[in-house]
Amino acid sequence: MSLESSEDPRRRRLLDDPLAIRAMAHPVRLDLLSLLGREGPLTAADAARRLGISQALASHHLRQLAKYDFVEPAQGKDNRERPWRAVSTSQTWADADLSPEAVAAAEVLEQLMAERALDELAVWQRQRADEEPAWRQNAGIGRTGIYLTRDEFVELEEQVQALVMRYVDERPIDDKSTRPPGSRLVEITRIVVVHPEDRALEEE
C-alpha cells in the first residue's frame, strides 16, 4: 500500500501501536484501504457494492479503520453523501521500535498480506497469456540469492526503496490526475529474508 504526499505527513505512517496494527490485519479492511487508494473517496454504500459485501459490514469496518486513523470522512457532493477517504495509504512498521505485542500483531498482518499476494499472483497467472510481452515478461515471481555484508544489504534496500518511491511520490495512488495514459495498477510485494549465519562455514 503506498500513497504519499509531502504536504501531509500522515500519508506515510509509521505503525508502532499493536492495536492499530491488529485493526489493519483484517481482509475486509485491507480491501477497503486498497479500494479507497485506487478509487479515491467512496461512501460505504459504494464501497460495499464494489466489494460485494453488505453496506452494514462496510460501514462497520470503515468505522474501525477511522478509529485508528486509517480513514476519515471526506467532502461529499451534498449533506446527504458521507464518503470516506484514506488518511494513510503507505504504512510501515519495519523501522518502528515495536513492543512484543506489536511484533506479534505485525506478524499476523504480514502473513495476511503474503496470502493476499499469492491470491493476486494466481489471478495474474490466469490472465498472463493474454497480456502484451512487456507486461507478461516483467511480472510474476523472481528469486535471487546473494551474499551481502550488512552495509551492502542496507545500501541495496535503500536503492530499491528510492527507485519505487520516486513513482509513489510523483503519483499519489488516489489522485487519478497523476496517472499517465496507458498506466495500470502494479502491485509490488517484496519478501526479503536473511538466513541465519552459518557458524560452521565461518570456522573452516
Lay out the secondary structure.
Elements: E1 12-14, H1 18-24, H2 27-39, H3 44-51, H4 55-67, E2 71-73, E3 84-86, E4 90-92, H5 100-127, H6 133-137, H7 150-170, H8 199-203
Parallel strand pairs: 1-4
Antiparallel strand pairs: 2-3
Helix pairs in contact: 1-5, 3-4
Features:
HTH_ArsR_DNA-bd_dom, 204 residues, Helix-turn-helix domain-containing protein, 49% helix, WH_DNA-bd_sf, two-stranded antiparallel sheet, mainly alpha, 8 helices
Description:
49% of the residues lie in helices and 6% in strands. With 204 residues, the chain is mainly alpha-helical. The strands form two sheets. Strands 1-4 form a two-stranded parallel ribbon. A two-stranded antiparallel ribbon has the order 2-3. The radius of gyration is 19 Å and the shape is globular.
Structure summarized in a few sentences:
Helices cover 49% and strands 6% of the residues.
| Biggest pleated-sheet summary | 2 strands, parallel
What is the number of E strands? Answer: 4
Tally the helices: 8
Overall 3D shape: globular
Order of strands, widest sheet: 1-4
Let me know the average pLDDT. 87
Order of helix and strand elements from N to C terminus: EHHHHEEEHHHH
**Which radius of gyration do the C-alpha atoms yield?**
19 Å
The low-pLDDT segments are 1-7
